[in-house]
């Protein structure tokens, strides 16, 4: 790992700090209940071609550690597969991250979530629209109208194209993608989108939510 860090112009301490940061974000989103066992989050280390991705299927996201983070190149090549006492599964949909980071170089963070309320709206074919102050982040949440797993490059490109320049995209019958220029921006967006979606659903029996202009 020290050789990989050095080749990217990072000290071992800097490299570890980025891996720890991603693990901490994953834990927070896990404790919020927004990511599920099969979701994952990535960080692109600034000024490098490295994309850090959290573990895939079966990993309990509330206890992910810095030494369990995968290291990919932005070209999709895997540079580091965590081993040790708890070998991790490669996220099946890792292409979501590498493709979006390639298409939008300004982004520092991409999250693929399986949050309940926003997923439910997608299943019901209902768009996410801003209905409260914090939901105002989401002037537009496009829909990727494909419920399948993102397992090849054409599907990853299609999803990235649907996301476009937006902060989030619903994946019909599947979940969502939420992005940010920093991990902090993405975490705020993950939190507020699910809160907004929940309020939309809870307002339905009262006649429906009144969207913000």
Tell me what the structure shows:
The protein has 213 residues and is an alpha+beta fold. 36% of the residues lie in helices and 15% in strands. The chain contains six helices and eight strands. An eight-stranded mixed beta sheet has the order 4-3-2-1-5-8-7-6, with helices on both faces. A hairpin with a 4-residue loop joins strand 3 and strand 4. The radius of gyration is 17 Å and the shape is elongated. It starts with a helix and ends in a 10-residue tail after the last helix.
Describe the largest sheet: 8 strands, mixed
Radius of gyration: 17 Å
How far is it from the N-terminal to the C-terminal residue, by CA? 49 Å
Shape: elongated
The whole-number mean of residue pLDDT values reads 92
Helix and strand element order: HHEEEEHEHEHEEH
**Helix amount:** 25-40%
Low-confidence stretches: none
What's the number of helices? 6
- How much of the sequence is in beta strands? 15-25%
Number of strands: 8
Quickly give the structural class: alpha+beta
Strand order of the largest sheet: 4-3-2-1-5-8-7-6
What attributes characterize this protein structure?
213 residues; eight-stranded mixed β-sheet; alpha+beta; 36% helix; elongated
In terms of topology, how is this protein built?
Elements (H helix, E strand, L loop, with lengths): L1 H6 L4 H21 L7 E5 L5 E4 L16 E4 L4 E3 L14 H9 L5 E5 L2 H8 L19 E2 L8 H11 L4 E4 L3 E6 L2 H21 L10
Parallel strand pairs: 6-7
Antiparallel strand pairs: 1-2, 1-5, 2-3, 3-4, 5-8, 7-8
Helix pairs in contact: 2-6, 3-5, 4-6
């Amino acid at each position: 790992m020290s050789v990989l860090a050095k080749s990217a112009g990072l000290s071992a301490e800097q490299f570890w700090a980025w891996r720890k940061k991603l693990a901490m974000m994953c834990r927070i989103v896990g404790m919020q209940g927004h990511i599920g066992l099969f979701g994952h989050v990535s960080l692109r280390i600034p000024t490098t071609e490295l994309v850090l991705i959290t573990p895939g299927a079966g990993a309990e996201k509330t206890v992910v550690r810095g030494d369990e983070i995968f290291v990919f190149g932005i070209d999709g090549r895997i540079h580091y597969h965590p081993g040790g006492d708890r070998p991790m599964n490669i996220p099946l949909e890792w292409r979501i991250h590498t493709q979006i980071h390639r298409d939008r170089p300004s982004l520092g963070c991409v999250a693929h979530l399986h949050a309940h309320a926003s997923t439910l709206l997608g299943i019901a074919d209902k768009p996410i629209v801003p209905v409260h102050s914090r939901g105002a982040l989401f002037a537009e949440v496009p829909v990727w109208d494909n419920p399948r797993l993102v397992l090849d490059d054409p599907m990853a490109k299609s999803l990235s194209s649907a996301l476009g320049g937006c902060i989030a995209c619903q994946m019909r019958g599947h979940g969502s993608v939420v992005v940010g220029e920093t991990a902090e921006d993405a975490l705020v967006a993950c939190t507020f989108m699910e809160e907004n979606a929940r309020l939309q659903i809870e307002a339905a029996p009262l006649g429906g939510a009144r969207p913000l202009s």
